[in-house]
TrEMBL record:
Residues 64-355 form the Hydroxyproline O-arabinosyltransferase-like domain. It is a single-pass membrane protein. One of its GO terms (molecular function) is glycosyltransferase activity. It comes from the Eukaryota. Pfam families: HPAT. The chain crosses the membrane at residues 7-30. Keywords: Glycosyltransferase, Membrane, Transferase, Transmembrane, Transmembrane helix. This is Hydroxyproline O-arabinosyltransferase-like domain-containing protein.
Length: 357
């Protein structure tokens, strides 16, 4: 009973703070923030990722903390184990600015991966608040983690369980710009009529075409944005029109809107990650994001929207991890898909007790 009362007090205080933050943001933060908004002659925030970004990185302490939010389902667990395996493989290689790692577990209770993966347990939203959209727990998890955890690094990489690090990732944030990946399906200009409900003034171009992951951002800036991000996420979910329009990406829009309310623009890095099967070439990318299904014929032809003769679809493994030694794709399949399967196989072969969760 005491724990429930404590949680309700914490949630009420946080929600009150979120409401205050959002409304103050709406009134004041829509004014240009001179320290964060581009001026004529300054670098365009939409930039390609290149080595000179690292050479000219002015961050005094560029190390960032890798953080991923997760629940305690088998589906989430096996992805977190894969991700953590590859984090450890690349963390200390040349070119890496990776610091510590935390899985923020928003189940409200410990699980059997606590000793394997550094984990910080936070509470989920009260029952029914998310209306079945479990992703709403993500901003709430960040609010709690930022308020209560000890984080040594000055920067944070917000990542997801289905991210695999292909190579060492430097701190890509540039000056006062956090670093983010531009998603082709986040289109603020095309959805201005809805976004104006939550971002009533200011240029619509101030809302970046991003989600909250992957994003490298200073810890202090994320502490400012997170309560607003949570508040906007809830407002979108409870707005019938916005909920229907934005669907499963609504919490991504919420982060972009919250950032704009705080006058924050992101530098956009197209090579931050690849998303097979649509990104065919790995190039200089740092992360493979395997959110989409990979369906191919035995001739190596994409069969998207159909069941492939060869396939890897992570949603096939909701209740148990994929088996070890997955069959490699047939000839002709893009290198991103081949690399993904090889990396899954290496991780599962080397993680003790892989098939037990």
């Amino acid at each position: 009973m005491k724990k429930n009362v404590t949680f309700l007090i914490l949630f009420s205080v946080t929600m009150g703070f979120c409401w205050l933050t959002y409304n103050v943001s709406t009134i004041f933060l829509l004014k240009p923030q001179n320290s964060r908004i581009n001026k004529p002659g300054q670098t365009d925030p939409v930039i390609e990722m290149a080595e000179h970004n690292r050479k000219h990185n002015t961050n005094p302490t560029p190390k960032y903390h890798v953080v991923v939010t997760a629940n305690d389902t088998p589906y989430s667990k096996w992805q977190c184990r894969i991700m953590y395996y590859w984090y450890k493989k690349v963390k200390d290689l040349n070119g890496s600015d990776m610091g510590g790692f935390t899985r923020v577990l928003h189940s409200g209770r410990v699980d059997n991966l606590m000793e394997e993966i550094p984990t910080f347990v936070v509470d989920p939203l009260p029952k029914g608040v998310d209306k079945g959209y479990v992703v709403l727990n993500r901003p709430w998890a960040f609010v709690q983690w930022l308020a209560n955890a000890t984080i040594e690094e000055e920067y944070v990489l917000m990542a997801e369980p289905d991210h695999i690090f292909v190579k060492p990732l430097p701190n890509l944030s540039k000056g006062n710009y956090p670093a983010a990946y531009p998603f082709f399906y986040i289109k603020p200009a095309e959805n201005e009529n809805i976004i104006r409900k939550f971002y009533p003034r200011g240029l619509i171009s101030d809302v970046d075409p991003i989600g909250n992951s992957p994003v490298i951002i200073s810890k202090s800036l994320l502490k400012e944005i997170a309560p607003t991000w949570m508040n906007v996420s809830l407002r979108i979910k409870y707005d019938t029109e916005a909920d229907a329009k934005f669907g499963w990406v609504q919490e991504m829009y919420a982060y972009a809107i919250a950032s704009a309310l705080h006058g924050v623009k992101h530098s956009l890095h197209k090579n931050f990650m690849v998303q097979p099967p649509f990104d065919r070439v790995l190039g200089n990318s740092y992360i493979i994001h395997y959110t989409y299904g990979n369906e191919y014929s035995l001739k190596g032809e994409l069969m998207y929207g159909k069941i492939g003769e060869w396939r890897f679809e992570k949603r096939m493994y909701l209740t148990q991890p994929p088996p070890r030694n997955l069959t490699l794709p047939p000839p002709g399949v893009p290198e991103t898909v081949v690399r993904l399967v090889k990396m899954l196989n290496e991780a599962s072969a080397n993680i003790p007790g892989w098939e037990k969760l």
